[in-house]
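During the second half of the funding period, the structural biology subgroup turned its attention to how the target accommodates small molecules. The most pressing case was 1,3-dihydroxyacetonephosphate, which had performed well in the primary screen but for which no bound structure existed. We therefore specified the complex as follows and requested a full 3D prediction, including the ligand pose.
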Amino acid sequence: MRKPIIAGNWKLNKNPKETAEFVAGIKGKLADATKVEAVIGAPAVDLQTLIDAAKGTDLKVASENNYFEDAGAFTGETSPKVLAEMGVNYGIIGHSERREYFHETDEDINKKAHALFKNGVTPIICCGETLETRKAGKVDEWVSGQIKAALKGLSAEQVASAVIAYEPIWAIGTGETATPEQAQEVCHLIRETVAGLYDQTTAENVRIQYGGSMKPANVKELMAQPDIDGGLVGGASLQPESFLELVHYQD
Ligand code: 13P
């Protein structure tokens, strides 16, 4: 059975003080960790504070980006090796904002996935289409292409342990959520793509999140879909109250 995983993605929000305040606000209130995994992805400058504050809780920590080299002359980059040493559990990679504003390619994302696995950090690999691609009827082709490129060269065992986040770009930060049926359809397609690339067992183990205006009001119906195993949440993860409501969606 796949354990549901609700992950916040704070994007470029919060400073260390606000990070510590957030953790103080959720301490002792998270859902049963045997039933749902709770993760916060924070800016690199907040990660140490987040890790320290989360000690003794079941909260897991994610980075929002990393470089694919561990060390060297790469000014301004974030080492996956150091993220692992710090105790970061997950690494969000290939977010549509990274692809759009920082020109990340499928090849970069694949290298980042390899670098995270090499260091023992589990990637959360993002994919998703624009409204234009959806209107052109090319969602399947686009998303399966992103997945094939991102997973290139990874072992079945690695993929089985990974998380894939389906985030339709038109639903991010817009308040417009994909319907549960739309989200399910693409999450199912992603699982089928993994089955085709690897095998049924790998496909049944990989966890697939939906992201795009997930909030307390729609989390239940999204999570009820058979191929949706979690959420990657922007806006609704910023306040302890709404994050707690999301992780308690089963209660
Ligand atoms: P919102 O939940 O704010 O739409 O953001 C989704 C997202 O991009 C998470 O990575």
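Two results from this model are relevant to the next phase. The chain has a mean pLDDT of 97. The longest strand covers residues 122-127.
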